[in-house]
Structures are given as C-alpha cells and as structure tokens.
Amino acid sequence: RELSDPPLKMYVRYTVHSPIRLLYVTVAPFWKIVSSFKATTSRAVCQLVKEYVGHRDGIWDLAVTRIQPLVLGTASADHCSMLWSIETGKCLLKYAGHAGSVNSIKFHPTEQMALTASGDQTAHIWRYMVQLPLPQPPADISASLDDDVDFSDKDEADGEADGPNECPTIRVATTTLKSHQGVVIAADWLVGGKQVVTASWDRAANLYDVETSELVHTLTGHDQELTHCCTHPTQRLVVTSSRDTTFRLWDFRDPSIHSVNVFQGHTDTVTSAVFTVGDNVVSGSDDRTVKVWDLKNMRSPIATIRTDSAVNRISVSANQRIIALPHDNRQVRLFDMNGVRLARLPRSNRQGHRRMVCCSAWNEENQACNLFTCGFDRQAIGWNINIPALLQEK
C-alpha cells in the first residue's frame, strides 16, 4: 500500500478442518440461556437496509449531512470521497481533488460543504449540490441470517465492483488547508462552522479559520501520531486521539486561555474519542476496550466495555446515547452508556461486512436507515436499528 495510507491492521483467521464432528452436551446456567435467546431476538431489531458499493478501495470514514437533503458521505483509500442517496444507494457526487487516501469526511452544520482529510498532507473544504433520485422499492431483508457462517475466497471477491453509475465529479477544492508535515488522518468543524480542526501523523492538531484558510493554533503535546479528532456539538471543545495511548481535551471556550487535559485510560492506541450530547466522552482503543468518561470528573472512566477485538471509529446516538462499536474482526456491536451490551449486528455470507469495519455513524433523522458502517470490504452499509425494541430487550 502507498505510504500515505493509514496502516492496515492485520489479523489471522484460524479454521480447523476435521472429518470428525463432536457433539458436546452441557447444562448451561439460566443466565446464559437468557443471553442466547437475546442474541437471537436482537436480529429482528437490527436489519440491513442498503449497501453502498462503488469505491475501489477500503472505506475509512463516513458521515451524514446535517441539513437537507440528507445524504451519506464516504471517505476511501481510493483517493475519492462520494456522496450517496441513502434511500436508493446510488452515487450522487464524487470528490476527486485529493492526491492521497481520503481518511475522513465531515459536513458543515448549516451549509452544503464537506471537509475531507487526506494522506496528501492536506484537508479540503468543498461545496456540493445534489439532487436526490426517486426512491426504489425496499430491499428484501427477510433472508435468514447466520452469524457463524464463514466466508470463502469467492465470497470475498464479491466485494469487487466496476464502480458506481456515472455521477458528477468535483476535482478542485474551495479551500485547501496545508500546514501539516504528515498524513492528515481526521478533521472536524467547530461549533458554528467558522473554524476547523485537523489531526495529523506529524503529532499535531491544527485549528484553522475557514474564511481566510489561516492557521490559528497548533495543538502540540502528543508523543506519537494522532489517529482522530472530534469537536463538541454545542461548545468550543476538541478531543484528539493518539497512538501514544492517550487522548487530550482542548478547551477553546475562553478566547484568552486554551487549556488542555490529558487522559491515560488505555494501554494501546486510542483510535477515536467522541463527545456525546450530554457531558460525556467515549473513547475506543486497540486495547479492545471502550471507556465512558464524565467531562466534569475525568480522573477515571464511569464505565468500561471489554471486547474481543480492537475498536475503530465509534459513534454515539444523540437521542438514546447508544454506542456503535466497529471492530477489526468484522463485527459491529451496540452498547449503552453503562457498558451493557444491547446487540450485535447480523453478519453472514449474505449480509454484513467481509473485512475490518472502520467506522460507524448514527443518523436518527432517518428512521428507516439510522446507522451506517463502513470497512475494508469497500462498501458502506445502512442498517435499521429498532431502538425501542432494542431497549425493551435490555
């Protein structure tokens, strides 16, 4: 892979082939029996709705526009970003202005503008205009699901696509931000949309003025490459994540003081840390844990979620505060803020991701398709999560 691409995480899948099949009969405790029933019924409340196929390499990141028309945006290692019709799954627009892997995408809070970060050491702001096509009949999602079915090489090749239908292409950015000396791995808009923050492998985060493209602040202190950055939805707060096992909270609410707090709750790379609508930060890590923190007292996490695989870019639903965990092992799991597991998204030879899942994004404005995931099988997937039924199972 080219040097501008983020490092791929490798995992080995072991399969034992034997002509002898053994049947084990055990007596399970009552609580384990209940748990198995829960895993089965949760399939009915987590259903695949739409697949978005057309990128020629893995998809690192995705986001949904904050204003109408609601469209899905994806950022891929194929040097392109695409906008998709959520209902039809068709590509509406392609942005091809970067010279390296597109590592993240975020949409302006009030205008039709997108912010993308790239391995070409820049972040781009570009304007878009899209026209939504007429919706298609709903897909058949009644096929039986089997979470334990593995994938053959033939199944993996099914992710190959000839590319999306012809759609308009933008090749020139409205604004180019280029003060970093390394890969720009993520970028986000500060509240109000007049400033943006970028995170880079050069170990720094930069704060820019959107109108002038000028560098306002350089945020230094991380000992290793940054992996992600996120802004608070209503306050001038920024959180940056790093391979140095820490994440940092930067406070820009007072123009004369720019304070920073360092949090050392993980033992491996912090892959993302995100704000919730309330006073919480949720962090995910390669150490296979997710931690929930209280902004008012961040000495120690208020909840810790332990999993069996590294966790990538997480997201938290605004209304119900459900955490969606994308994993290296192709799974996507849902937890509440107390660390209680709610569900695992279906995955079989017919449905689900076939490679590492890189990112999740909630979209509670669309009840039919309210969660999106993407991964290195080159596709994004839209899911319907029946949240009332999910919480009732809990």
From TrEMBL:
Stored CDD domains: WD40 (cd00200)
Pfam families from the UniProt entry: WD40
Coiled-coil spans in chain: none
Region (Disordered) location: 143-166
Keyword presence, Cytoplasm: yes
Superkingdom field: Eukaryota
Record protein name field: WD repeat-containing protein 37
Broad class of the protein's primary localization: cytoplasm
InterPro entries: WD40/YVTN_repeat-like_dom_sf (IPR015943), WD40_PAC1 (IPR020472), WD40_repeat_CS (IPR019775), WD40_repeat_dom_sf (IPR036322), WD40_rpt (IPR001680)
Keyword check for Cytoplasm: yes
Keywords per UniProt: Cytoplasm, Nucleus, Repeat, WD repeat
WD repeat start and end residues: 95-126, 177-218, 219-260, 263-303
Localization terms from the record: Cytoplasm; Nucleus
Residue ranges with Acidic residues bias: 145-163
